[in-house]
Amino acid sequence: MRVQPYLFFEGRCEEAIAFYREALGAQVVALMRYGEGPQPSMCAGAQAHHVMHASVRIGDVELLMSDGQCSGQPAVFQGFSLTLNVAGTSQAERTVAALSDGGTLTVPLMATFFSPAFGVVQDRFGLPWMVVAEQPAAA
């Protein structure tokens, strides 16, 4: 069994994919537009170019994404956060800077008991991210 997040961007999925490619090095595994599906009229607000389904790999995880109902009114994601575990403080700094471009830095990077650099960002799509730098290996 595997749990896999499915994120709906309400008409901004293509923009989100481009952003995550740039900010996180995301790779598109699969992408299907409404116009390519078996029922192009499946989503009332969708146009043929909207993303019906995409699978995007970030690190070892595939996130599923869609334009959903294409309402143009993306809701703020609530009740969860995606967590990025990164190799060290400098990577945490780069990641937080990239994700906060057009978004909101909720918790600035800080040293904690579990990480030398931990921060929380809500990106430009309203998606919350926790960035956690791994602890250096003990000598």
Protein architecture, described:
- Helices cover 17% and strands 34% of the residues.
- It is α/β, with parallel strands linked by helices and 139 residues long.
- The protein folds into two domains: 6-66, Signal recognition particle alu RNA binding heterodimer, srp9/1 (2-Layer Sandwich), CATH 3.30.720.100; 82-133, Signal recognition particle alu RNA binding heterodimer, srp9/1.
- A four-stranded mixed beta sheet has the order 1-4-3-2, with helices on one face.
- The protein is elongated, with a radius of gyration of 17 Å.
List the helices and strands and how they pair.
Layout: E1 6-8, H1 13-24, E2 27-33, E3 51-58, E4 61-66, E5 82-86, H2 89-100, E6 104-110, E7 118-122, E8 128-133
Parallel strand pairs: 1-4, 5-8
Antiparallel strand pairs: 2-3, 3-4, 6-7, 7-8
Summarize the structure.
Helices cover 17% and strands 34% of the residues. It is an alpha/beta fold.
Throw out a few tags for this protein.
alpha/beta, Signal recognition particle alu RNA binding heterodimer, srp9/1, 8 strands, about 15% helix, about 140 residues, 4-stranded mixed sheet, 2 domains, single chain
